[in-house]
Specification:
single chain; mainly alpha; 3 helices; 70% helix
Length: 105
């Protein structure tokens, strides 16, 4: 009896997982195709979005924007440091070209 109930529950969980997986794939695909990060695609506006607490949604949006800002600042910092490093290396180059007495081939 417990085996039958366990298999019934397992079957239902597999169905739910397959449905959620498909919904999640569609939502993520639509999110990636969306140009405006604040726009919520229709495939992402399911039952979960309606029962979600608005403070959680605001927190998620705040964290996404903060993550984007942190990543942008870090990337710009690395670019500036690399440019300064290359500028510093350029001072190691000789100031004058050595006269070439013989053409070496």
């Amino acid at each position: 009896m417990f085996a039958q109930v366990g298999e019934l529950i397992l079957g239902q969980l597999r169905e739910i997982g397959a449905q959620l997986g498909g919904d999640l794939r569609a939502c993520l695909g639509d999110r990636m195709a969306e140009n405006d990060p604040d726009e919520v695609p229709a495939s992402c506006q399911g039952a979960g979005a309606q029962t979600q607490d608005p403070t959680i949604g605001a927190y998620v949006v705040k964290q996404v924007h903060a993550g984007f800002q942190d990543t942008t600042i870090r990337t710009m910092g690395v670019a500036v440091l690399l440019l300064l490093f290359v500028l510093g290396l350029s001072f190691l180059l000789p100031r004058e070209v050595r006269p070439d007495a013989e053409a070496v081939h």
